[in-house]
Design a protein that fits this description.
The chain folds into two domains: 91 residues, no CATH class; 41 residues. It is built from seven helices and no strands. It is mostly helical. The two termini are 31 Å apart. It is globular, with a radius of gyration of 16 Å. Helix 1 crosses helix 6, helix 2 packs across helix 5 and helix 3 packs across helix 5.
Length: 132
């Protein structure tokens, strides 16, 4: 990531891909932004220190050019705080938590194991069986 030296810490596209698993609980007519995009923007804003949805919306607005290059689909505008609130209200909190937990587990395992896939598999098995 271009912002705050995040390139070594988190990949925005990986967060987006993880959130694609979350079921969108909104009514289909009028949906402009995917649930994956909204949740990704909320998480990235939170990681940047934004404590409110309004702060997150402002953070996104200032970084719209960069975000449109790293997140699909490429767009010039992003959702406002009210849209984020509606998505968060309709999303299944347990599913979102599980997706985030899985993502953070994979990121942590990758950092600990490096490029050795056998270590990653072993660590993944230990995590799933809660042997850590």
């Amino acid at each position: 990531m271009e912002q705050a030296g995040w390139e070594q810490q988190i990949n925005a596209l990986s967060v987006y891909r993880a959130f694609e698993q979350v079921v969108d609980g909104r009514h289909k007519p009028g949906v402009r932004y995917s649930v994956a995009l909204i949740l990704t923007l909320v998480v990235l804003g939170k990681l940047a220190g934004m404590t409110t949805l309004l702060g997150r919306a402002e953070w996104v607005r200032f970084r719209a050019g960069w975000l449109s290059t790293v997140l699909p689909p490429a767009r010039q505008s992003f959702a406002c705080a009210a849209t984020s609130s509606n998505v968060l209200r309709a999303a299944d909190a347990q599913q979102v938590s599980q997706v985030m937990n899985d993502l953070l587990t994979r990121v942590g395992a990758t950092k600990r194991c490096g490029d050795d896939p056998s270590l990653y598999w072993l660590l993944g098995t230990c995590v799933e069986n809660k042997v850590l």
